[in-house]
Amino acid sequence: MQLIKSQNVHSIFCNNGNVVCYNTILNLPIVLDEASYNYFSDCDNINLGINQYSEDELVLFDALKDSYLLIPSNKSENEICEQLNIAYLNKVSRGETVEFFDLRVSEKCNFGCKHCISSNAQSDELMTVNTAIDAIDFVVDFLRERKSNFSKIDVHYGNAEPLMNFSLVKKIQQYLREQYPFLSRVTSINTNLSLLNEEMAGFFVDEDIAVYASLDGRKEANDLIRIFKNGNGTYDVIRKKMALLKKAGKALEGISVTITEANFPFFDLTFIDWCLENGFRSLAMDFDLVNSLGITLDERIDFLSSMWQKCNENNIEFFGTWITPFLNVSNRSIVDKHYAFCKGVHGKSVSIAPDGLMYICGSSSTSLGHYRDIEVAFSVDGKMYDLVSSRLIGRNEMCKGCIIEGACAGQCYVTGEYSHDNRRGLCDYYRAITEKLLSIQGASESVS
Ligand code: SF4
Ligand code: SF4
After folding, report:
1. Interval between CA 346 and ligand 2 midpoint (Å)
2. Which of 104, 150, 198, 433 shows the smallest number of beta carbons within 10 Å?
3. Residues 6+ apart with CB under 8 A from 360
4. What is the value of pTM for the model shown?
5. Is there an atom of ligand 1 within 6 Å of 410 CB?
6. CATH top class, domain 89-437
7. Residue 426 Cβ contacting ligand 1 at under 6 Å
8. Distance, CA of 98 to CA of 184 (rounded, Å)
9. Read out DSSP for 332-401?
10. How far apart are CA 64 and CA 9, in angstroms?
11. Distance from the CA of 398 to the center of ligand 1, in angstroms?
């Protein structure tokens, strides 16, 4: 077999002399020592059938092949992706890819946070029982016809403050149980917690609903940005409701934190100690993805990478939108399993608003039509089909040649809805944090 060096290799030089190399489209990095890197740099065509190679060379070729740094000479990365994309789009066109169902039971919110990523996607309406039941029946029928093994439904309640429409959440849960007993349910809710009472807390325990909540740091940090409509801080009420949830038997294991330029000065590595003291073992953290930030790129990268290292040392899960390209480049290749930046742009989720319009996720404000036209949206040239198609690896013109093309694949769709300029700044951010984490990881690995 003739192997050639990929034209899409990116190398990151770590501070201990190791070099992280990966294929910018097919991912899966390898860490090389200096000698192996130099040898690889000088490799041209490798013809395993004709040339004689030493045992060490063959071992290195195998590793380079597994990382797609050496690829068969008869196929380019783009051809490989396109073949897999066409097969995946066939499934999309048949509506087989849908796994997640988001119901925007309330597009109203009693908070007034300026950094809310869903703010453009809020109509200030509550969903009615009729809409919820009809949408569930319609989507379940759609999926039953298309998926022979359809036995599980993943339901999420959002998108602004779902507890403002708690009675509907109760009715939906009862309806699903009675009407679709053959469907196992995985259910979750994102809430600001402020309206939580004992009945609701007990209900979440009884129904086994996963509860996700946000707290934007300690009191002085949170109360600058996570505020009621009248501008008052929300920290005290959120903590009180977290305690109520814990008393009911559903202690939150993690929090989501947004950082803006207002609360950034209140964060440093001691925040991790505070999380440990408060029993938060999972920390989702993002810089404001919507508004421009007066925090330099270097500051953001230094902050996230040092927090990431400290979380790793303390066994705290630490993640955010920023880590997606790093996780993808490290663990995923389209050759092994088809994927995209997120389940939204991969055609795996459907979010339904109170007016019946459909979106790729709870934060998006780009309507893909009414849920009753779901078949049209997923069929070839339908709005969902086109969106998914344009976001597949290798298809996005803007991303061609980017050092994380196969790992980021166009980034979060919702941030693109806000502003094109912001999106370009986010590209630099995603590239920089991915390189930084890879260089830290590469330096920590011993290479034989
Ligand atoms: S969205 Fe930006 S960072 Fe992501 S792959 Fe495209 S060009 Fe690269
Ligand atoms: S587009 Fe994807 S990453 Fe962005 S908010 Fe929606 S699901 Fe999340």
Report:
1. 10
2. 198
3. 344, 345, 347, 349, 350, 351, 366, 368, 384, 387, 413
4. 0.94
5. yes
6. alpha beta
7. no
8. 16
9. --TTTS---SSTTTTT-EEEE-TTSBEESSTT------BGGGHHHHHSTTSHHHHHHHHTSTTT-GGGTT
10. 11
11. 7
Q: What is the mean pLDDT of each run of 10 residues along the chain (448 residues)?
A: 91 96 98 94 80 89 94 91 98 96 97 87 92 97 93 95 98 97 96 98 97 97 97 98 97 94 97 96 93 89 98 97 98 97 97 98 96 97 97 94 97 84 85 98 84
Residues in contact with ligand 2 (CB, 6 Å cut-off): 321, 342, 344-345, 361, 363-364, 412-414
The residue type of 117 is I
Query: Which amino acid is located at 298 in the chain?
Result: D
- Dist. CA 15–CA 31, nearest whole Å: 13
Which pair of structure tokens corresponds to residue 318? 């630490």
431/31 Cα distance (integer angstroms): 19
Are 266 and 256 spatial neighbours (Cβ–Cβ below 8 Å)? no
The rounded Å distance from CA 315 to ligand 2 centre is 26
Nearest to 299 by CA among 256, 255, 259: 259
Ligand 2 centre and the CA of 46: distance in Å?
42
